[in-house]
Amino acid sequence: MKTLLLFFGTILSSLTYSQPPFESLDSLFTGLHDKGEFNGMVLAAKGDKIVFSRAYGFADVNSSSPIDASTQFYVASLSKQFTAAAVLQLVDQEKFRLDDPVNSILGKFPYEYITIRHLLNNTSGIADYIDYFAEHWNKRKQATTDDVVEYIFSDHPASRVMAAL
Description:
Strand order of the largest sheet: 1-2
Number of helices: 6
Strand content: 5-15%
Shape: extended
Number of strands: 4
Helix content: 25-40%
Largest sheet: 2 strands, antiparallel
Low-confidence stretches: 1-6, 158-165
Order of helices and strands: HHEEEEHHHH
Structural class: alpha+beta
């Protein structure tokens, strides 16, 4: 937590001095990259306008292929908390309830008894798709969200969902 606060404090303080903000950002992330502490893509926007965008490091260290705007990153569970927050905001707006079945929102969702609460709590019983992809997926292709949804909707029969619900 202290590192995160220090990081944001550094950005904010660097933006208040005479150096243009994008130069401060570039300087900050170049320094972090040079020390081996950052590898990735940075984008800063004001409203709908991108004011800074730059890649640092390699998408594949072994082949020395650099990161660029089209590089796909495997984010795994990183986005879960943002999705959960957005879902809870929709619940607060009474768009749906936590105990509504998922298929009331996603009509093709094949599991009638799985609720939004189940998904948020990781208690849906839907088997982990990662092992499936590790064994069956074309490793030359990055699996997209659409690929995972297609797997859940068609390739992953309801009988493989745990009965412990």
